[in-house]
Give the backbone structure.
Amino acid sequence: MFFATSSSGSSLHPQERPGRRREEERAQLERTPAFVDLEVVRDVGDLKRCLTNPGGLRNVLVFEMSGLATGHPQFVGVGETEGVQLARSRRIAVVLALLVLALGMSVFTSMAFLRSNPPTVDFTSGHKAGEPVNMTVQTVGSIGFGPHPTWVSYLTMTPGGKWVHTTLWQLPAHTRVNVTILQYDTGSPLRNQFIGHVTGTIGGTMTVNGRTTSLINSYGANGVGHTFTVPSLGIDVPLLGNLASAKNFCGAAPCTTSSAHNVVKFSFMTPGPGEYPWQCFVPCGLGYLYGNGGPMQTIGYMDGFLDVVS
Ligand SMILES: [Cu+2]
């Protein structure tokens, strides 16, 4: 079926051609095999019917009618044009299909993002009120696996003793957390010397390889590799770097204590329930603008959350 409408550049004016000739042309068109499927508009009724029942993808045969406004239409001429006409229902279907596709892609992207989040290590199961939680993590110069094997990263040991590539921890509220950080990376001078101070820990101190201190001079030989910082809790712990001349650096995580490392220990109290972001404040994202991209802004590497629950 063909869609019919009025006027086209190829239509003919009645004064230029005698009526008889037009009738002959019309008859000729109706006999032409190429138009065997077309629907010829003979009067305004046909025209209305075609207009209210447009077809899909097809060429359009254009009839010119005169006198439509007066209610006395006359066939004037015929011409052919090309075009794509979609029925309204089909247009709605296409729009709906595109919307469904866009929605599906959004959901898929969101789910992919959620799935990409590292797991949360649960330190609350079996925890008895009043008892401390012991947590061990490590920092590495290059994770050695996954989508970003060259990135610096933290890893977490589960209560069962397994290393997991994550920075998400679920902790009981109002509980002492005894943290051990095995620091396997080298260091450098801090851009802001203030974060060389230990703050927010119990006693305001930490131990580095068994020695108690509250300050790392990052202009010393080792510098600071990373920090463990929870801004909303005022916690900042600078992590002493390893000597760059060490021969036994860890190449890929999880590192073992046979590689060069520093042992940093401190404790802090968890607050009430809530989500508390933590991160490293040393711009250690090598290859990114000012070192603040990549692992510095990716959960599981240099930042994470304390999920504190009651
Ligand atoms: Cu870092």
